[in-house]
Amino acid sequence: MTRGVSELKEEVGLRIVALLVVVAAAAVAAIWTLDTKSSASQSVFAVYLAIDLVSFAMISYVYRETKGGDEISRLPLLAGCVLLVILVAAGFAVL
To answer: CB-based burial of residue 64 (10 Å sphere; 0-12 exposed, 13-18 middle, 19+ buried)?
Structure first.
């Protein structure tokens, strides 16, 4: 059986979104456990909030592209993933 190209795009999009939801959920869990009285914790809060926002932006990009019938471009996804890795590294560096 052969699957259509649009089905493959949606499957790839769902996998990407699932991974981004896991990243966002981990960032929310980290935010939930922070004590924001110290300045270091406030910095970590800002970094993890940025992770959530970038994840949300990437999820909305994937949704727009798959629902519009367009192909998901690799460059915006790569840029978003690199930014997420930098932000996660920054979150660990601040702790």
So the answer is: exposed
The pLDDT assigned to 2 comes to: 53
The whole-angstrom separation of Cα 47 and Cα 84 is 10
Are the CB atoms for 9 and 71 separated by under 8 Å?
yes
Weakly modelled stretches of the chain, pLDDT under 70: 1-8, 95
- Would you call 75 exposed, middle or buried from its count of C-beta atoms within 10 A (0-12, 13-18, 19+)? exposed
Structural domain count, the chain: 1
Residue 24 structural domain: 5-94
